[in-house]
Amino acid sequence: MITLKGKHIYLRALELEDLEFIHQVENDESIWEISSTITPYSKFLIKQYLENAHKDIFEVKQLRLVISSYNDDALGLIDLFDFDFRNKRVGVGILIKNPEDRQKGFASEALGLLIDYCVKHLDVHQLYCNISEENTASINLFESHGFQKIGLKKDWTYTNGSYKNEYLLQRISI
Hints:
Strand order of the largest sheet: 1-2-3-4-5-7-6
Protein name: GNAT family N-acetyltransferase
CATH topology of the domain at 9-127: Aminopeptidase
Domain N-acetyltransferase: 9-170
Radius of gyration: 16 Å
Order of helices and strands: EHHHHEEEHEHEE
InterPro entries: Acyl_CoA_acyltransferase (IPR016181), GNAT_dom (IPR000182)
Distance between the termini: 23 Å
Oligomer: single chain
């Protein structure tokens, strides 16, 4: 049995009922830098996305899960992207939507559950993520789960009139 349940949160598949939550996340300009978004998304487009969210990671090369509390509040999202089955690697992204829900261990618990899922069920050998040099909370989160900085991409993102560096972190499963 696949268990994506932790002590305080669980990870679940996207549902059509998540339309409003996803719409709010995707249209929150304060986090566009993290997702490389530059335009708003309509509810129509998000509904189409949700209608196809059931597709297999082996087909679409990505998987998005909701980080949910046990009283069924959607706290955030955790994503697998650029899934490469042949080379056994996948990218990871995570977001806790509301600032008041951050620094409470939800992201750490979700990341631990996702790493376990990737190793046991997807046979992934390595996971990686890209994090802005100034996002120390995310860097600390990923490093606490065995990710290591393997490179610094100089002037990688252009945001609010200036360039920012971005770290590439990697976790090799042994």
